[in-house]
Every structure is written in structure tokens, then in C-alpha cells.
Amino acid sequence: MKHGYKHKTGVFGTDAERYTSQLFLMFKNPNGHRRPDLISLNGRLSPKLSIEVKSGRKMKGVMVDYQLHYAITTQQDYIDLFGEEPPQRTDLLPGVDTTPLPKEYIAYYYNVINRFDELSAQDLDKPFSAIRIKWGNQYLVPHEFGFYNFAINMARRTDGNVEEAIEYLKEIMRQDVLNGTSHYQSRKADRNSWQDLHARDIIAIFDNRPAFATKEGKERIALITKHYKELRELQRIKIPAANGTSLYILAKPEDHDLLDRQFRTVIQERVPVIERVTRERRESRPLLDRIETKAMGLYESGSESEKDIDFPEQTTSNINLSRDEILKLNRLCHWLSEGETKVSLPEKPDDDIPF
User: Fold this and answer.
1) CA distance 283 to 274
2) Packing angle between helix 323-333 and helix 264-283, nearest 10 degrees?
3) Which of 17, 23, 94, 292 could form a disulfide with 318, with the two C-beta atoms 3.0–4.6 Å apart?
4) 3-state secondary structure (DSSP) of residue 347
């Protein structure tokens, strides 16, 4: 059986989103360039929770400036950040809310998830290779923490002033909200549009262990403490997760019940499922040895029933597996237990997606 394959360097990030989606029972936002990666289902958590996943090895993930506006999820967010009412929209019918933002509060957090395998991109050169990826501890912080971290890193990199970086980024966020686009393609080339978010900094604050942070980390923490006044109010929450890992959360006081009780309950329910999938992924790795990858041209599956299978593109692979084995590997790539389906959009997406 032949299928096209093209290695995608984003496979690590995709697997992290799928893993956390199934662990948290949150669906992946289809509008990935305008909203955070994950959103809680209607009725599951109150208030709603949205999470931007930042994955990587060595306890750090990468933030980008064209995602900072994700934090402005409500009209009150806009007022608090810019000191003014959001402008009215003129492209809507009479009787429709004319602001570009909803009123309902949505808790928004960054999640740095640590990858603890030794894989490189070259190790994922076959279809379904994502089953080899292993995820460790996770570190959640409010979006405000991420914002000040970004501004501080930008100022340090450019030898600039932190206050000026803060105002510059706020204006970028305001324009992104008003214009309905983050111009992410044009900004990607600017190296200052990308800044690291370090889990070592987060755990040093969480455990009140400054020595755990690097020298630069200590300097970042000092500056975050200075500029993010609410940092001292954040509450520590630790939640046991799958495969002996933990979630370390610096929670805003108003989100304590949401995260320490409701979110914890969901994770406790999901841990056995994720651990079962982890075992299946480990036991299924020998199947990858039967997949041969060759540069032989482009083939596509013509079967209507195979459209949801996670076959990569271009560069031909000889997949010497049965259909059941292919479906199993595909299921495991989506972190699904046998008989499970992906966490999907509600019937009325607009009721659940904080645009």
C-alpha cells in the first residue's frame, strides 16, 4: 500500500495539541491563526477555559507576538488593557452586538509542555512516527505572565526599555483586534516576534526556589515580579497527570475553582485513558519498522473512507500494513483509546468558540 509523505517539522506541536486535547477534553480550535489552540466544551467548565500550548524540549516553548491578542477575549479585557471601550462594528445587522468581542469571561492560559524523549525531526521521517513522542510535566500560567515575559525578553534582546516594549506590544495587540488579522505571515521573519517561555522560571516561582532558574532566568523573574504586579497573588495548584507527570499551575485567584476543582476532575477522569493509549503507542512501535520510505513520486489514497487517516504528504511510503493496523496507528496518533472519537466541535460552533 503506497501513500504520499512529506515530513512536517510541526509534528511535535501537533502531537502536543492532540495529547492535551484528549487529556483535558478540550477541542482544538479550527481557527488556529485567530484564537488559542484549545477551548473547553460548553457545560464542561465554568467559566470557559482556553489554552495556548507551547511544547518543546529543555523545559521551554516559543511564543510569537501575533498570538498575544488571543488574550483579549472579552470587551472587559479590551477596556482593562487599553482604557477605552472597544469600537463599534458597522458591518452587522441592527440588533446584533456591534463590538468585535463577547462579554463573557474566558480564562486564558499558556501551557508549556515538556517533551522528554530524545527524538529529532529526522526520527519522524515515516507516517505515524508521532507515536514515538513522549510528553512530560506541564506548566500553566495566565496570559498576563506570558505577555510580560515576552516584553521583557524583547527588551533584553534589543537592549531596549521594558516599559517601551510593553506599550509597543499593547499597540500591536490593539491593531490585531481591530483589524481582525494578526498579519502573522509578514511578522514571522522578524526574530523579535519570537520569544521563549521558560518552564524553569515557572517552577522556580511555583516552588519559591530561585536556585532552580538559570542566571538569565533569575533576571527574568526579577523583572516579571517588578512589572507584573499580580504575580504575588497567583495561587499554586499541582495536579497529578498521566504517566507519573504533573501539571504545575500559577492560577489567578478568580480561576482557582475552575482549575483546582473542575479542571482537576476532568484530568483525573482522563488519566487512565491516556495511560492506556501510551501503552498502546509503545507496543505498536514495531509496526513502524514495516513502513518503507522512498523518494519515488507522489501517490494519494483514493478511498473515501481513508480521508480522515493521518497520512502525511509527498515522498512515497510503502506502508506494508493491514488496514486494521493503519487505522490503529492513526487512532494512536490522535491519542484516542479504542472506540473513542476526537473531541470535536459542538453542533453550534459559535456558542463555544470565543471569537
Assistant:
1) 14
2) 140
3) 292
4) coil
Q: Output Rg (C-alpha) for the chain, integer angstroms.
A: 21
* Angle at 208 (CA atoms; ends 151, 253), nearest 5 degrees: 70
Cell digits for 92?
Answer: 452587522
Average pLDDT of the chain, as a whole number? 84
Higher pLDDT, 299 or 281: 281
46-94 per-position pLDDT tens digit? 999 999 999 999 999 999 998 898 888 777 777 877 778 877 654 433 3
Angle among Cα 37, 328, 264 to the nearest 5 degrees reads 40
Encode pLDDT of 271-292 as tens digits: 999 999 999 999 999 999 999 8
Give the mean pLDDT of 219-231: 97
Amino acid at 337: S
Question: Taking the domains of the chain in order of start, what are their residue ranges?
Answer: 10-277
Q: What does pTM read for this prediction? A: 0.85
- 126/167 Cα distance (integer angstroms): 45
Listed in order, strand segments (DSSP E) in the chain are 2-4, 26-28, 38-40, 48-56, 60-64, 106-115, 135-142, 194-198, 235-240, 246-251, 291-293, 316-319
Candidates 17, 143, 97; CA nearest to 350 is 97
* Cell numbers at 15, concatenated: 502531537
Residue 315, sorted as left (phi over 0), alpha (psi -120 to 50) or beta, turns out to be left
